[in-house]
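Late entry, evening session. Most of the bench is empty. Finally got around to the prediction I had been postponing all week. Sequence below, unchanged from the version circulated by S.P.
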Amino acid sequence: MDRNELLNKIHQGRTRLEAALAKFSDEQMTSLTLKNGWTLKDTLAHIGFWEHRAAALYQILKRGETPDGVATDAEVDALNAKAHAENQNRSLAEVRQTEQGAYQELLVIAETAPEADLFDPQRFPWTGGVAFVEHIAANTYDHYDEHLAMLS
């Protein structure tokens, strides 16, 4: 994968996500419950949480620091539950704004980070031989598609 392919995948995934969410009114965004028990607002807040987390991870790695890791399913589940609880009382407008900002943070990294930072699997030892681009994919288009499956 190169930067152009990455950006195309991010933009295409974002288009799919926005098209799916555009089908729902604001009232439906906060009242319809998905199979996992979350509302559409909850899902959008969840996506934003992980977008922001990936962008923050990049900043930590870029500074040469070692981030805390999320290694187990139980740790991911705990983070998801914490983020869900923290976003329960936020308005839909606030969730949308926060998620959009997190998306933009990650998009700027995809657009401007040095090639080695994105595509060299050895660039950041913490990633264990996985190129950082995989963290971007997992928290943008792959993550969007995971949740789009719940909307159909």
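Two things to note before I forget:
The chain has a mean pLDDT of 95.
The two ends are 29 Å apart (CA to CA).
Will write this up properly tomorrow.
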